[in-house]
Amino acid sequence: MKKYLSFFRVRFLMGLQYRVAALAGIATQFAWGFLEIMALKAFYETDASVYPMTFQATVSYVWLQQAFLAFFASWMVDTELFDMILNGNIAYELCRPVRIYSLMASRNLANRVSRAVLRCLPILVVAFFLPQPYRMGAPQGIVHFLFFLVAMVLGLFVSVAFFMFVYVLAFYTISPQGLRIVFVSLVEYLSGGVIPLPFFPEKVLRVVELLPFAAMQNVPLRIYGGDMEGAEMLRALGLQLFWLVALVAIGSALCRKAERRVALQGG
Amino acid sequence: MITMQDVCKSYKVAKRNAGFGEACKALFRREYETIHALRNVSFTINDGEMVGYIGPNGAGKSSTIKILSGILTPDSGTVLVDGRVPYKDRIRHVAQIGVVFGQRSQLWWDVPVIDSFELLKDVYSIPQKQYDNNLEELTSLLNLSELLRTPARQLSLGQRMRCEIAGSLLHSPKILFLDEPTIGLDAVSKLAVRDFIKKQNELHGTTVILTTHDMQDIEALSKRIILIGKGEILLDGTPEDLKKGGQSIDETVAELYRAYDI
Amino acid sequence: MERKIVSRVRLYLHYVSINVRSAMQYKTSFFLTTFGQFMVSFQVFLGIYFMFLRFKSVKDFTYSEVLLCFSVMLLEFSLAEMFGRGFDSFSGMIRSGSFDQVLTRPRGEILQVLGSKFELTRIGRMIQAVIMFAYGITHCNVDWTVLKVLTILLMIVCGTAVFAGLFIIYAALCFFTLDGLEFMNIFTDGARETGKYPLGVYGKKLLLFTTVVIPYALVQYYPLLYVWGRTDKVWYAFMPLLALWFPLPCLVLWRFGVHHYKSSGS
């Protein structure tokens, strides 16, 4: 456990070193949030009757999405890891006294958390004081907030577990680049990164909701604003748990198989 | 002719401290320090000379080369290369010089070397006839015929350096700047590169200024050495001046570094 | 003078050809990247498509009008990226020190930086832009005239120039700092995203900003109003030309940056 913590600390320090980059990132994310809300507002003003969420819930959705971008961003794949797998340097990691799967997962987790920690607070604080209609709302209620926290952690784990699955697949494919391109766009779209899932046509949504992609940002971001509650919320949390277990199981099993192969062939 | 007179150059560098607390502090305040890369540097180099420019890392070697090749503007002092001020008249100046940075490549990585040369022909607007003649001569002197059709990424370091040097001479420059041309090369390539530079100098009277850490380069090539340390010229003379009573040149230089505390 | 221009164009074409030949050394990677570029903007399209399954219009603009808007903006952006990639990725050139090499060549810096990268993979985005464009023009009942075709051409050329100007600002800033230039994405990627809808739908303030400060609206909203026949003002068709002021200060900033680089050297 200690080695993982120290790894996290190093990442975090590195993030702090690039303070200007962090500030610029925050500014960029603000601008993105504004632009997104402005577009949604245009649709809301056009015809509020078919708008699938409350407007306030979408505003909170957008700000939370920006604040925790690093948790779920699919383009934040660790290219270093891909390279290590491609050129066989991963074999060196085999010599260290840690499991490859947990090493890669903690590395990925550290990357995402350290980036988000640095950026989420300033974004959220400012978003709470913005003029209407851009102001971020308070959580729907204390229970919602608690479930939001749980779903957030689960969502982060699911997204890390999913990308672990993609990394591990890279062991088995000849074109990790193609793999990355396909999965990056798939995750981005089907997790609600481009438009929130409630804006999907109903029939499509019924299928998409069951996929692992919907178990990432979709659940916490919608619970917060009260767009998801009661039985629907519990079902979504259950699905998050299911996908987390399933993805970790499949990922680590595939990884162990790949490890044995790498060990045999020497990379 | 190259003259540098009382040239000074200093940089401001931000300090970066280690540690968590320091990193947090740096979020709000940054400290700068001034580094004097060159202090009152003066020398004259005549046409056709071969000069070795030596000194430890950070002594001001590359600042000098950058100033002479028109990349960098000095804070004060005068610089004249064949009557031109390099940094004021960049385009006209660089058409007459060749520069090889040992650790950077001017070749396109993924296409055959000859394609990069063809591009350089257009960059320098070299007349076809002059290009053909130079290419032929360089190919035979540097033994490039096998390499020209190979993509640069497949060349060994030594092969690539030979191609880099050829590329920088296609436009028949009067002055050649070589920044660590033998760094990382194997023994055979080193000898080939040295031989070639010597021949180029004899054949075309090209003025050669080279920086290097390799004292054997200096011994083999230059009749004149300029030693720089902490931004000041410490010594300007022949390799013999450097050698006192049979010591190897490496030892002498190490001793000099110690003596000048650099 | 004429000879100089011919020699410059020839050199640029030579750069383009060597770039394309380099890219073709890695055909799989090239096609995958092109495909990836397509996918990225296809997602945005899919977002619009789903929105319009639900909403009949945004403000009073229809689906096909929105597609026309998006396609023109996307085309402008990807053209600028294709030709101006050298500026867009200039931080790499500073980091690796290859800008020093640019300065040791007897050619203008801008020509050499432009030539250093020609990103053919942006064709992936252009293909999508062209498909949407075709759909847009066939479905939004425009009475095509010569002037309207000319308007579209002007939009594309001048819009590319505006985006190129932004890339040049980014590159010029690289001379001073390499930290935090991420914020420039607001204006480049941000404009591409915002430009998927007619800039008028976002309200007066944004429209004013994109008219006066960074003139996207001059190459998207106003001339399209004329093309759609939503305005009788013929001079709206020539608004893209007004946007051509924008690259000028960008070039001044670039000059200033080069000057700074030459005196600070890193």
Features:
heterotrimer; B: alpha/beta; Rossmann fold; six-stranded mixed sheet; 37% helix; globular; C: 266 residues
Describe the fold and architecture:
The complex is a heterotrimer of chains A (267), B (262) and C (266). Chain A has 267 residues and is mainly α. Helices cover 75% and strands 0% of the residues of chain A. Chain A is globular. The mean pLDDT of chain A is 85. Chain B is built from 10 helices and 9 strands. Chain B has helices at residues 20-26, 61-68, 90-94, 113-123, 128-142, 157-167, 187-204, 215-221, 239-242, 249-259; strands spanning 2-14, 32-45, 50-54, 76-81, 97-101, 175-179, 207-211, 224-229, 232-237. In chain B, the strands form 2 sheets. Chain B has a 6-stranded mixed sheet, with helices on both faces. Chain B has a 3-stranded antiparallel sheet with strand order 2-1-4, covered by helices on one side. The longest helix of chain B is centred in the C-terminal third of the chain and has 18 residues, at 187-204. The two termini of chain B are 30 Å apart. The mean pLDDT of chain B is 87. Chain C contains 14 helices and no strands. In chain C, helix 3 (63-88) runs antiparallel to helix 7, helix 8 (146-174) runs antiparallel to helix 12 (221-228) and helix 8 (146-174) runs parallel beside helix 14 (247-264). Chain C has one domain (2-20, 29-264). The longest helix of chain C is centred in the middle third of the chain and has 29 residues, at 146-174. Chains A and C meet through helix 2 and helix 9 of A and helix 2 and helix 9 of C.
Give me a quick take on this structure.
The complex is a heterotrimer of chains A (267), B (262) and C (266). With 267 residues, chain A is mainly alpha-helical. Chain A has 12 helices and no strands.
Largest sheet of chain C: none
How many runs of DSSP E, i.e. beta strands of chain C? 0
Helix fraction of chain C by DSSP (H/I, runs of at least 4): over 70%
In terms of per-residue confidence, which ranges of chain C show pLDDT below 50 for 5 or more consecutive residues? none
Mean pLDDT of chain C: 92
The fraction of residues assigned to DSSP E strands of chain C is: under 5%
Largest sheet of chain A: none
Q: What's the total helix number of chain C? A: 14
Q: Evaluate the radius of gyration of chain C.
A: 19 Å
Q: What is the N-to-C succession of helices and strands of chain C?
A: HHHHHHHHHHHHHH
Largest interface: A-C, 36 and 38 residues
Can you count the helices of chain A? 12
Distance between the termini of chain A: 27 Å
- Domain tally of chain C: 1
Quaternary state of this entry equals heterotrimer
Spatial gap, N to C terminus of chain C: 34 Å
- What count of structural domains of chain A? 1
Overall SS class of chain A: mainly alpha
